[in-house]
């Protein structure tokens, strides 16, 4: 993936383009942009059909690991990625370790490690 800055005024504003995605090389996403939040691989309150009608061009899908870890076995078995497994293969998946909508608990931190809180396997 590449990020090309198209405008910068010397302060904080910055316009650019995300491009060069491995699974969708012809897709360009202008920034700043918003990502579509998913729960368990589904965009909340939108079916795949409605999502395609609302957004005819590929969008960023934000998949927090804490609520999509159950997709791992199926996605690995299919070997085409979590977006394809979720039925949203035309969109770009961005997986994060933490869900910013959930409170991060205090404690259980180790140097150079990221604890994936919120997983059913515990805080290990």
Would you give an account of this structure?
GO terms for molecular function: transferase activity. With 124 residues, the chain is α/β, with parallel strands linked by helices. It is built from three helices and seven strands; from the N terminus they run βββββαβααβ. It has two domains: 1-33, no CATH class; 34-100 and 107-124, no CATH class. 15% of the residues lie in helices and 26% in strands. A four-stranded mixed sheet has the order 5-4-6-7, with no helix packed on it. It is globular.
Question: pLDDT average, as an integer?
Answer: 81
The number of domains: 2
Strand content: 25-35%
Helix content: 10-25%
Q: Round the Cα radius of gyration to an integer and report it.
A: 17 Å
The dominant shape is globular
Figure out the total of helices. Answer: 3
Provide the succession of SSEs. EEEEEHEHHE
N- to C-terminal distance: 31 Å
Structural class: alpha/beta
The largest sheet is: 4 strands, mixed
Question: How many distinct beta strands?
Answer: 7
Identify the strand order in the major beta sheet. 5-4-6-7
Unreliable stretches (pLDDT < 50, length at least 5) are: none
Keywords: Transferase
GO molecular function, one term: transferase activity
Protein name: Queuine tRNA-ribosyltransferase accessory subunit 2
